[in-house]
Structure formats: structure tokens, C-alpha cells
Design goal:
- The chain is of the alpha/beta class.
- 32% of the residues lie in helices and 16% in strands.
- It is built from eleven helices and nine strands.
- An eight-stranded parallel barrel has the order 1-2-4-5-6-7-8-9, surrounded by six helices.
- The longest helix has 12 residues, at 138-149.
- The mean pLDDT is 93.
- This is Glycerophosphodiester phosphodiesterase.
- Residues 9-266 form the GP-PDE domain.
- InterPro entries: GP_PDE_dom (IPR030395), PLC-like_Pdiesterase_TIM-brl (IPR017946).
Length: 269
């Protein structure tokens, strides 16, 4: 593996620098940008009053001091919750002080887009739409409207786009591809269905997003994807041996909770 080839692997901060700071908070994304991440990954869900927020789970119970489904709560309800202190509870001997509550309150996608716009360098965004949801296609519709407000919905070419949309739902990606054909789309996979084992992807998907488990168990799959003309963005790659495996296979992006560590392993300061 040459240094030049390693330099072409994009390092994507999964839910921000989520090993060091509470996932999907402003604190985690600010840390990821400071660490030098090439891109930020986030999950988006639609609130009851139509705002896109960065929350992974269907319910807020795990990552906040509240309860309930994101889709049934309004933004004001979510803003009143603390999305940070749960991280300190993982280690009873150390309860970190995240300081400004605004760094650990619910993060809207709009605020994350503002952070990226003000970062002073090119930072890409990998936005995952979560399905199934009661809002169905409204998620993609609101997402593209918001990207349009930031001038990100219609890049001249896919390779010029600083945003890509990811999903385990092929239908979600098809909606995005139909409405915004130059925004890259990533089909996420926990397993490879028999009809896709030759490297094909569903209609509307341009990039494969296999889990690291798939790559460990079937490393030849990456070569099949490349032969079919597709790129590979692998999640969630945290262990040094897995980083080495992905780099050796020539994947195009590594999605990790540890962006600084992965950058260091790839020889990038």
C-alpha cells in the first residue's frame, strides 16, 4: 500500500468524533473537524413539526435524558433534553464536563450544515436517512429542500458534490436520485443479498456501503464492486487491523468513530 493510495482514502467521522464526545452533538462534530476528518456522517430523522434532527435511534431514550419517538416529538421538546451526560455514565470514574449546554443539545441538520459552511476548509457530509418512519418520503423531500437552501442540492457533477445521501432503504435512495440526480447515493448493507453478490447495486445507488463485518468475511467483494464500477465506503471501522484491511483492499472511504486515530494510521497528520 503506497502512501499516495492511502492519502486518497476519505476518513469519515461516524456521528462525529463519537468515541471522544457524545454522538451527534455539536461537540462531537467540532472535535471531528478539529481532528482533521475529511467528512462527517450523520443520521437524520424528521420531528413532528417538520425539522430534520441528527439522532440515530427511533427513540431518544438511549442518548438523552428524555423518552419517546423522535417522530412524535416537536423540536422544542427535543431542545429541552440533554444529549450529552449519558456519555459520562459509561465510565463511573470519569464524568466529563462538556461545558456549554448548546454543545450537547439536540443538533438540527441545519445547524450542522452551518458548522460545515463555517469550517474554513472542505468538509464533506454523508447524511443517512433512517427508515422505516411514519414520515416516509417527506424525509427526503425536506432533506433536499434544506440542501437547496445551502446551495448543495444540484452540483454540476456527482464528483463535485460535497454531500452524499446514504440509506439501508433502496427506496429512499431512489427518491433522492430521481429528484437530485447529481447527488451521490450510498446503499448501506449489513449483509449482501444473493442478487447483489456480483457487485451490482439497486437502481439509484452509486456507491456501496458494506459493514466491516462483510469486508472481513468476504474481502473479495470489494474487488467485485470495483469491477462493476462502484466505490466502497465501509462502516464502522475502528480497529487498526480493520483499517489496514480496508486500506489494502483500496476502499474509497472509511467511516469511523475514531477519525484522528485512523488518519494517524494512514500516515496523515
Amino acid at each position: 500500500m503506497t502512501q499516495a493510495r492511502q492519502n486518497h482514502i476519505q476518513v469519515v467521522a461516524h456521528r462525529g468524533a463519537s468515541e471522544d464526545a457524545p454522538e451527534h452533538t455539536l461537540a462531537a462534530y467540532m472535535k471531528a473537524i478539529a481532528d482533521g476528518a475529511d467528512a462527517l456522517e450523520c443520521d437524520v430523522r424528521l420531528t413532528a413539526d417538520g425539522h430534520l434532527v441528527c439522532v440515530h435511534d427511533r427513540r431518544v431514550n438511549r442518548t438523552s435524558n428524555g423518552r419517546g419517538a423522535v417522530s412524535a416529538l416537536e423540536l422544542a421538546d427535543l431542545t429541552a433534553l440533554d444529549f450529552g451526560t449519558w456519555k459520562g455514565r459509561e465510565d463511573a470514574t470519569e464524568s466529563p464536563d462538556w461545558g456549554d449546554p448548546s454543545l450537547t443539545s439536540v443538533l438540527t441538520l441545519e445547524r450542522l450544515l452551518e458548522l460545515v459552511a463555517d469550517s474554513g476548509r472542505r468538509v464533506e457530509l454523508a447524511i443517512e436517512t433512517k427508515h422505516p418512519t411514519r414520515w416516509a418520503g417527506q424525509v427526503e423531500e425536506r432533506l433536499l429542500q434544506l440542501l437547496g437552501r445551502f446551495g448543495l442540492a444540484a452540483p454540476a457533477r456527482a464528483e463535485d458534490s460535497s454531500v452524499r445521501v446514504m440509506s439501508f432503504s433502496a427506496r429512499s435512495l431512489h427518491r433522492v436520485a430521481a429528484a437530485a440526480p447529481t447527488i451521490p447515493t450510498v446503499y448501506l448493507m449489513q449483509f449482501v443479498s444473493p442478487r447483489l453478490r456480483d457487485g451490482r447495486l439497486p437502481a439509484g445507488a452509486r456507491i456501496a456501503g458494506p459493514s466491516i463485518r462483510i469486508v472481513r468475511n468476504h474481502p473479495a467483494y470489494i474487488e467485485r464492486l470495483h469491477r462493476a464500477g462502484h466505490r466502497a465506503h465501509v462502516w464502522t471501522v475502528n480497529e487498526p487491523a480493520d483499517v489496514e484491511l480496508c486500506a489494502g483492499l483500496g476502499v474509497e472511504a472509511i467511516i469511523t468513530n475514531r477519525p484522528r486515530q485512523v488518519l494517524s494510521q494512514l500516515g496523515r497528520p
